[in-house]
């Protein structure tokens, strides 16, 4: 399930088995949800919690604004409750101009475990006009920007709980501005973060190349690029 809220790209998925009628999973999950946003703020941007077999993980992007982070997480929780009332697993990479965030739920421990699938793909509906643009040059510049963003995102910043994050703005020959963002959950290793983001980039190349931007989300990471500034961190 892929949805766009008020023009904001979002990656949202319900997976896994159904919640049994006599299970306490939903109640425990909702108990975790009730304090998830405040726990993320208290823990400087990332929180992982569990109650019996219910597990919830959430984060906001680096340099988040407190209220924007809370709003993003609460919005993601609301969507999970509405669209995944009977599924034990979900993840939602959501966001707007102020902040991006992740909320993930499972019925098993996932902390410090790299998870590559399933994925969400949300490419731009608009294609680059290859008849007027030098796509060979664009590909070269795009790959250079990917490598710059990947290097920034995987160079773990020990000063931040949200240690895996990169946002790069580049000027291409035929495009005045290209914006790219990558982020991983901070519980995995730098090598695992690089693997996860590399798989996101590869998926975009294989299935969405030629589109004017897009978002690929996996449970452990997210990759997004576009031709407009979609986060305040670019400004």
Automatic annotation (TrEMBL):
Organism classification, top ranks?
Eukaryota, Viridiplantae, Streptophyta, Embryophyta, Tracheophyta
Asked if the Swiss-Prot or TrEMBL record annotates the protein with the keyword Transferase, the reply is yes
Q: Which GO terms describe its molecular function?
A: kinase activity
Domain Gnk2-homologous intervals? 7-110, 123-230
Check the record and name the Pfam families matching this protein: Stress-antifung
This protein's name: Cysteine-rich receptor-like protein kinase 38
InterPro entries assigned to the protein according to its UniProt record, in alphabetical order:
GNK2 (IPR002902), GNK2_sf (IPR038408)
Asked if Repeat is a keyword of the record, the answer is yes
Q: Which domain of life is it from?
A: Eukaryota
**Assigned keywords, A-Z:** Kinase, Receptor, Repeat, Signal, Transferase
């Amino acid at each position: 399930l892929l949805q766009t809220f008020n023009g904001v790209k979002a990656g949202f998925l319900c997976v896994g088995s159904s919640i049994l009628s006599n299970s306490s999973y939903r109640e425990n999950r909702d108990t975790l949800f009730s304090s998830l946003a405040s726990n993320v703020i208290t823990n400087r941007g990332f929180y992982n919690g569990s109650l019996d077999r219910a597990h919830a993980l959430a984060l906001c992007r680096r340099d988040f604004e407190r209220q924007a982070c809370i709003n993003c997480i609460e919005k993601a929780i609301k969507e999970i409750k509405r669209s995944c009332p009977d599924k034990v697993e979900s993840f939602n990479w959501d966001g707007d101009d102020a902040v991006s965030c992740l909320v993930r739920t499972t019925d098993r421990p996932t902390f410090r475990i790299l998870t590559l699938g399933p994925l969400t793909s949300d490419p731009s509906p608009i294609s680059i006009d290859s008849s007027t643009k030098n796509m060979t040059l664009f590909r070269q510049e795009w790959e250079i920007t990917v490598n710059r963003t990947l290097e920034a995102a995987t160079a773990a910043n020990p000063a931040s709980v949200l240690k895996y994050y990169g946002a790069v703005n580049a000027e291409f020959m035929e495009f005045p501005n290209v914006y790219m963002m990558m982020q991983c959950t901070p519980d995995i290793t730098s090598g695992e973060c690089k693997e996860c983001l590399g798989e996101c980039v590869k998926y975009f190349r294989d299935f969405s190349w030629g589109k004017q931007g897009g978002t690929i989300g996996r449970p452990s990471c997210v990759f997004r690029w576009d031709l407009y500034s979609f986060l305040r961190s670019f400004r």
